Amino acid sequence: MEKKMLFPRVGGFLHGGDYNPEQWLDRPDILEEDVRLMKKAGINSVTLGVFSWAVYEPAEGEFHFEWLEEIMDRLYANGIYTVLATPSGARPAWLDAAYPEAMRVSSRGVRNHHGGRHNHCMSSPKYREKVAIIDRKLAERFGKHPGLLMWHISNEFSGMCFCPICVKRFQEYLEKKFDHDIEKLNHAWWTTFWSHHYNSFEQIEPPYENGERSVLGLNLEWQRFTSWNTDDFMNHEIRVLKDITPEIPVTANFMELFGGLDYQKMAGSLDVISWDSYPRFHNDYESFQDTMFRNAFQHGVMRSLKPGKPFMLMESTPSLVNWHPYNKLKRPGVHKLASLQAVACGSDTVQYFQWRKGRGSAEQFHGAVVDHNGSEDTRVFRDVAELGEILGRIAPVVGTVVRTRAALIFDWDNRWAIHDAQAFGGQSKQYEETCMKIWLEFHKMGVEMDILRSDTDLEGYDLAVVPMLFMLQKGTAENLIRFVKKGGQLLATYCTGYVDEDQLCYLGGFPGDGLSDLFGIVDEEIDTLYPSDRNRIVFPDGTEWEVRDYAELLRVKDARILGTYGDDFYEGTPALTCKEYPVDTSAGQAGTPAGQAGSLADQPGTSAGSAGPSAGRAYYLAARCSTAQMRSLFLQMLRDAGIPTEDLPEGVDHHVRYGEEGTYDFYLNYNTEPVTLSGVKGLELISGERAEGALELGRYGVAVVRR
Ligand code: GAL
Q: Which of 46, 156, 312, 324 has most ligand 1 atoms within 8 Å of its beta carbon, as the pocket-test mutant?
């Protein structure tokens, strides 16, 4: 496997962060001192220009880039590279005064005032024109600068605009999507309901807060449109840059599980995925371990936007943020732990917001490497410098990647659909949480999963879990059927396959689009439980799983029943089923199972007369259960898929990065107590010592072992 280095020129990790020298142009002493301190902290890159438009272009058409050139030159001369942002995330006052159409319109149809950030209309031709001008100037001036590593497009895209230009564009988007046929749209959106029929595309308004919000197809398309339009805007910027600097990679910094934009689609427009990670460390509502594991999932989501490639941790705080409900300091050791967690999960960078604290305005108290006191003799500075050294020691990891044969389907479009569905429990849908818990359970067994959109072709994967895939895209069911028939181990859960991509319910039995046959069941009803309600799934061997929140009532066609409900009027009816498909290399006929009850331990792969690991299996779990209790099922699937597992001590996280010249195991201890791992052999890169079996990890300790 070849190395997938993002920045071969750098030859190591990027260690750096957002740097705002434009706020300090009247303090050349500080700008000089910055370079000295950066070198001391092992900083080799900065992100410049994120919100610098008003300094670049203080009045329309009047450009000033000398300051930036001077800074980039000086940094480069000192071995510090630049990630250069386009400044479209916030606009100068003159621009809004001259072109008010650039300002966003709210969901009540009222135009915002100037100010803030992310406050622009993505459709406005004038705004796009102004952005293209400044971007072109930057590319022309700095495109050939030896210090330039990458373009950072705008900043954390987000939000919706309801202005007349956006409305018009939305109508055009719909017209194209529905082949200029308004009746197609009326059918897809089921508009006869409440007399919501449209006679023409011009009549369609976005879902204003005080307007139409009951047509789910409209809501969904508005989300898709906003995401598409943002991507289109981003591509407008990318085109300008690529035109002049085709060789410079582009990224845009994403935010966690931000629901407003379909990152799975936008990822296609970017060369590299980057994201901003701000976990609420040491909070009072979950354990520190939980915070860390949750964050591992977030990294997994980002990594999986481009599987098989490193990503970038574009922002993280070296100490605290200023916008959490309570802004707690990272406890000693946590800076190293969280930064190396990103690396373990596949990041080739550790970058911060921000290098130096500003004196005024909203972020004056946000953590930074250099505090207002300007000193290098601080806890935070020492933490950062220590990390810089460690990144140097583990540099051989750069360009290696995370690989796996297991997949979790987690889909942005489905998020929109299931959350907008006026069904199930208001508080208990918890789609994201459900996906995350399953991912973590696998992860704690030492199994990494790629986190993929629902229409991904699962070729190359042997195991897939599809939680709550309420909405099926065109081709999703087909992919899943092919996957199982080729021998894949598949688990789908309650709430799968209710609606198609227009959010129209499938007729003829859920899950739709052929999945009812694949699983050999029909989901006839769903019982949404009150928070204190419980049911059980009982297995023939006496095991029980607790059921909360959701319980579907199944009719079994030709699946094997593995577990049945233990209580209520549906006691004794199927709750977990499996249908087997002996592998047919011509991908033709699927085998059908015996329809009697059995236990998980009786499953093929472990019992005599089984179809063996050469059988695909489609499991259907009709109820929400604790993932810890579901472990037996996961283990069975993993065994049948031939995917190894491992026993890790509580609170220890293990990730593996694979490369041509080596395989690197990352062990992270999320406990305050030391732990000892056994069976670890290889060179531990941080200490430079060989591990010969036992490996001790101290409080929040990290080890990077080259096998
Ligand atoms: C990010 C943003 C940065 C900064 C940071 C503070 O969301 O991209 O510009 O505001 O938050 O945590």
A: 156
